[in-house]
Amino acid sequence: MKKNKQAQIWGLDVLSALTMFFIGIMIFFIYSLNQPGESRETFELLSYDGKIIADNLMSQGYPENWEADNVVTLGITSNNKINETKLEKIYNMDYTKTKQLFNTIYDYYFFFDEKITSLDVEGIGKPGATKDNIEAKNLIKITRFTIYQNKTVPLYVYIWEE
Q1: Mean pLDDT calculated for residue range 112-140
Q2: Neighbouring C-alpha atoms within 13 Å toward the C-beta of 28
Q3: Domain parsing of the chain, residue ranges
Q4: What is the model's pLDDT at position 73?
């Protein structure tokens, strides 16, 4: 009588397949459990940077009458009202320098609901960006209210990760 050894090989195949299956399941669960944490962390970092940028913009900056060569903190207000001169100075600054002054690695763009008379631009921030064409993986919108020509106007700050 011949012994049938095919059953032993089949058992080894099943054991290998089950091992690979369980390793795949473990990798899937580890990835799926860590993914929401990464999204939450990115959201928190974007929110934090966006709030800092918005708060800085709503300040008068430092020093109070700053110029592009001596500015430490960018701000666009004087006496809690929009200062068009400061706004124009930020518009004329290099975008990379403003990102450094805002201390952010993310791209930003800010604008008002209405045009500011001294500037005929929609907003200030990343070159080529507008409020309608931002393509981002993660985008946060921060809103602050300020005064321009004795009217309350909203300031919108978009901050995103590409």
Answers
A1: 85
A2: 6
A3: 39-161
A4: 95
